Amino acid sequence: MELKAEEEEVGGLQPVSIQAFASSSTLHGLAHIFSYERLSLKRALWALCFLGSLAVLLCVCTERVQYYFHYHHVTKLDEVAASQLTFPAVTLCNLNEFRFSQVSKNDLYHAGELLALLNNRYEIPDTQMADEKQLEILQDKANFRSFKPKPFNMREFYDRAGHDIRDMLLSCHFRGEVCSAEDFKVGQISFPSSTFFLLPANSLVTNRKPLKKMPIRIFCSVSFSSGEVASGPLGDAWGPQQQKQQQQHSWSNSESEEEEEEKKKMLRKEPNEGDSPVDLVAFANSCTLHGASHVFVAGAPGPRQALWAVAFVLALGAFLCQVGDRIAYYLSYPHVTRLDEVASTELTFPAVTLCNTNAVRLSQLSYPDLLYLAPMLGLDESDDPGVPLAPPGPEAFSGEPFNLHRFYNRSCHRLEDMLLYCSYSGGPCGPHNFSVVFTRYGKCYTFNSGRDGRPRLKTMKGGTGNGLEIMLDIQQDEYLPVWGETDETSFEAGIKVQIHSQDEPPFIDQLGFGVAPGFQTFVACQEQRLIYLPPPWGTCKAVTMDSDFFDSYSITACRIDCETRYLVENCNCRMVHMPGDAPYCTPEQYKECADPALDFLVEKDQEYCVCEMPCNLTRYGKELSMVKIPSKASAKYLAKKFNKSEQYIGENILVLDIFFEVLNYETIEQKKAYEIAGLLGDIGGQMGLFIGASILTVLELFDYAYENPCESLRGHPAGMTYAANILPHHPARGTFEDFTC
């Protein structure tokens, strides 16, 4: 009892040292830094490794916390097969809102100005443009002499005067069965502008009973040099007298022989000169690698150790397989594609490039021009053109060589002649809002190009009426006859249109879509912003474009730049639409060299032009729909308005309406599917799951592999009988005595 009281007194006087805490802590690497050995390079290296691992951990944790507070979301895109689907609702409207035959005199009195049939003085405007039969009927209805108006209801007027589905529906089938007008419903259409549970703190408190004091048996090995008083905390606390009493009390205690044997086993043996300087069993007991202490034990190995060894090897093998799989996956540099839609208050309207499919106006073609262009037009010089030609212009007598660029600029369709009507976001626009650009179709025009100091137009709303609406006359009577087939021959009538970003040049002959006369074409656009990854995760081009012609990189700019260099190298000239200062190709060079060279470049020499995908790209998705124009009701009006025949209106007039479907944009972004932080996390997780190790555990193994041969070379003192991480190091000076308490 006295010894117990002395132990409690000493325990109260001596706090737990940092070395004792480090030796018992589960934090890997701490015991190697705060050991009882003197400060050495080894401890300093362990400290650096520990601090480096801690810094990496903090960096990864900080990055993960920041990523969390960005509140990312993903959009899941999947296709699911279904046995049945609900058929969508289909809404259809006649573009003509009211039937003329159903408009009464009372309707005309109240809504005549709204219908543009009467002016504010109840008079019929522009009577000369109306059909004679309809004008007669309208004049009779617009005679309001002695007319007493009745109450008018706009909803009732729409319901009564609108087209009836029973009159329009000629045939209807759904899933092979006959449907009728009763299967349709009249509706109104409106167009809009465009758990964590917290528990109370006291609920987590458990009623704990006071622990009973349990007897604790402590075995310790203390080495003192005989004849000297030990120094250190224990030596100071226990004076010589206390040490002597302690020794006598320990040896006088009556214990059984089994307990004596147990204590002797716990005492460390004195090493011999031939022993290994670092015992493998001792290293396994102090190593943080799970299972090693059960495999490497003192004494002869038994079945238990063999089973532990098999389990350890299997776990190690599984760990290495998983690590190999994760590393192989990382080195494949996978990526995922993230799809998202972002709402916006405004969007930059795209550039719109349009070209007439006919490059040269017939009225501008003289006989010298025809002889010069004969190779491009497929006309032999001996053939009769069969059409009247214009008189030669001043250029024919100037003595200057014929220039194809100058010819196209003079003879192509003029926008001032083609553009009949232009409106952007409800406001008027005109030819001054377009810029001239040359393409394979000759002289073309770009709306909202953003060049020459012009600001890029923006739109604040989506839907029709909030974009670009133009009416064009394609002037088919100015089209050249087809004398033969060449690469420049066009069989189409209409215009080619390309919707593109202001940062890329038009490539309308390959990327444009056609718009035919006699139709109003609606083009609903959606802006798409694409972000690609550079190698090795993707194939995009992350560097700026090395070109003398274009400032920003795009696939279109790359192809035009490459084709230009290819023609200059092989034909010593360039086409009209190509940039640079090389001379323009003549019609003979077009036929003999330029066109065949481009065909060869596309078909055979694909390695010459390798245009990689840019890392940031803006493109526009399009949905096209068309209606016939003009209607029978408007053909005569348009013919009189533009002083043309009804046949001419049907063959030459088109309307193009380009707008944003909704005021948002779509982002399609490639993201790294597996980064280095994920790789380290997976390896760390597999390492902890299978072998209970960490990066510092691996350093322990390397430390043991290094220290073992080094200690053998340096020699080992014979007096070290303690574990280095238990008690402080005391140099051996004589005979050692072992005390057991």
Overview of this structure, please?
- This protein is α+β, with helices and mostly antiparallel strands and 741 residues long.
- Helices cover 35% and strands 16% of the residues.
- It is elongated, with a radius of gyration of 46 Å.
- The longest helix has 29 residues, at 41-69.
- The model is unreliable at 9-13, 190-256, 267-277 and 717-741 (pLDDT under 50).
- The strands form six sheets. Strands 4, 7, 8, 12, 15, 18 and 19 form a seven-stranded mixed β-sheet that branches. A five-stranded antiparallel β-sheet has the order 9-10-6-13-14. Strands 1-2 form a two-stranded antiparallel sheet.
- A hairpin with a 2-residue loop joins strand 9 (434-439) and strand 10.
- Among the domains are: 2-62 and 214-326 and 701-739, no CATH class; 100-183, acid-sensing ion channel 1 domain (acid-sensing ion channel 1 fold, Orthogonal Bundle); 334-358 and 413-473 and 494-539 and 615-673, Acid-sensing ion channels like domains (Acid-sensing ion channels like fold).
- It is built from 24 helices and 20 strands.
- Helix 14 runs antiparallel to helix 23 (676-690) and helix 21 (632-641) packs across helix 22.
